[in-house]
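Homework help board

Subject: predicted structure for assignment chain

Our instructor gave us this sequence and asked us to write out the predicted structure in token form, then describe one feature. I got the tokens but I'm not sure how to describe them. Can anyone check?
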Amino acid sequence: MSGEILWIERRRTCLAYSPGGHYAELRRALEGIRFTDCFHVTYRSEHASPAPGVRVLHLCHPRRSPFRFLVNAIQALVVVVRERPRLVISTGADVTLAVLVWGKLFGARVVFIETGGSLEPSLTGRLVYPFADLFVVQWPQKLDRFPRAVLAEGLLL
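My token output:
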């Protein structure tokens, strides 16, 4: 991509992701889109390096711990209530689940991009699929599990 702007998104947008590969996939998926009102939600990591000047809010990483998941869910609720996103776009993983749920409950449109890193459906994808407004997969094999999904034009890896 040459950096050409193909779409300007004016809705208040939350980009929710885990650092590393999930963030890399999200960046590739959003090439050509300029956001006028956007913030990021993730957890602290040396792999999370959005561009300078990008507003990043950090949540507790759940790490499959019920206590940590509860902390993450409360932090996500505070973020959604305070920030009031109209659109939540995510590539997962677990740190983003509560943001997606709260966002939907508070009226945001939810876009989930299932990871291309595996042919198996992700846990977050299986949980988000029933209420996502747009669900994108990167492998045709995933359409069997997610029949309402849209197939991306190539991998974002």
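Reply (TA_rk): Your tokens look well-formed. For the description, you could write something like this. Residues 87 and 109 are 5 Å apart (CA to CA). That's the kind of observation they're looking for.
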